[in-house]
Structures are given as structure tokens and as C-alpha cells.
Design a protein that fits this description.
Layout: H1 2-20, H2 28-50, H3 61-85
């Protein structure tokens, strides 16, 4: 059940991260959704596993912060990859 909460939060985190991140990343709505979901999962994993911070609830303040941070990291990497391909 926890993974479903992180996926739902990822939809929101992707939109927030895209609004925060400067410049044009391209990709469109589906890339934003995908990066948001993956970023949420990565952020949740980083927060709980590597840093030992309790992100027991995806919709807690730490959960939201780590989801957005994870999405920002993936949007940054996405920008590096697509910039080289273009």
C-alpha cells in the first residue's frame, strides 16, 4: 500500500518539481508524470534507506520534501541526457 501512496505523491511532486526547476526541460506531461513518480520513489528510498529519516507516510512533510527533491534530481538528469541527444 505504501508504494501506491508514493506513486500518487509522485504525480504531484513531478508537477511541483517542474514548476520549481528553471528553464525548459521539454518532455511534456507524460515525461513529467514519469519523472515525478520515479523521483518520488527515489526520494522516498533515499530518505528512508540512506539517510535513515522516517518517511513512513508518503503524505507527511518529509515524504513530500523527499519526493520533490527526487523529482528535481531526475529532471536535472533528464535535462543532461536530452541536451546531449539534441
Amino acid at each position: 500500500m505504501n508504494i501506491i501512496a508514493w506513486v500518487i505523491l509522485g504525480l504531484i511532486a513531478g508537477a511541483i518539481a517542474k514548476a520549481i526547476y528553471p528553464g525548459n526541460q521539454g518532455g511534456g506531461i507524460f515525461a513529467t508524470i514519469g519523472l515525478g513518480i520515479l523521483g518520488s520513489l527515489v526520494g522516498g528510498w533515499l530518505g528512508s534507506t540512506l539517510l535513515g529519516i522516517s518517511t513512513s507516510g508518503a503524505f507527511s512533510i518529509p515524504g513530500i520534501l523527499f519526493a520533490v527533491i527526487g523529482a528535481l534530481i531526475l529532471i536535472f538528469i533528464w535535462g543532461l541526457v536530452t541536451r546531449r541527444a539534441a
